[in-house]
Amino acid sequence: MTGKSEPLHTVIVGCLVRNAENQVLLIRHYRRGWEIPQGHVEERENLVDAAKREVAEEAGVNAEIGPLAAMWSMVSPSSVLIFGFLGRYLSGELNPTDDSEEAVWVSEETALEMVVSPTMRQRLEALLYYDGRVSYRSYSLKPYQLHLERDLLAWPDPTP
């Protein structure tokens, strides 16, 4: 035994939900400002169910969770894995709860103006511009520094 402790990671899911008018759902977090619905995965909860629950808890609507579009790994000051999904609005009226102060449907352009946190904006952009490849970024905070950026499903073609 080396005396090292096993790494502990917090797991977060987020979802960019679109409605039939192609508007995106944003919530206003009481500390972080505008962002997509997101939150911690609870013990014994799968990622898709966690994303559905977070959308319902933070915005009051039901969403179908689609593809995984992006992953982020915050390595400092703590270890956090963030899974970003795309989703489609199914039902319900916007009704923020204790987890958020406000929920709105806005255009992509307006969403980009409203989300001002650099970290949250980068997550929003990765999901808005999803091209079928899962993007991955590793970063640290205080100050923000990007360590690695790549597509997880893209692999160089081995043929000349």
UniProtKB/TrEMBL annotation:
Alphabetical list of SUPFAM superfamilies matching this protein: Nudix
Pfam families according to UniProt: NUDIX (PF00293)
UniProt key word Magnesium: yes
Family annotation (Gene3D superfamilies): Nucleoside Triphosphate Pyrophosphohydrolase
Domain of life assignment: Bacteria
Cofactor or coenzyme needed: Mg(2+)
Keywords, comma-separated and alphabetical: Hydrolase, Magnesium
Keyword Hydrolase set for record: yes
GO molecular function: hydrolase activity
Domain named Nudix hydrolase: residues: 7-128
UniProt cross-references to InterPro entries, sorted A to Z: NUDIX_hydrolase-like_dom_sf, NUDIX_hydrolase_CS, NUDIX_hydrolase_dom
PANTHER family associated with the record: GDP-MANNOSE MANNOSYL HYDROLASE (PTHR43046)
Protein name (record): NUDIX hydrolase
Organism expressing this protein natively: Geomonas terrae
Source taxonomy: Bacteria, Pseudomonadati, Thermodesulfobacteriota, Desulfuromonadia, Geobacterales
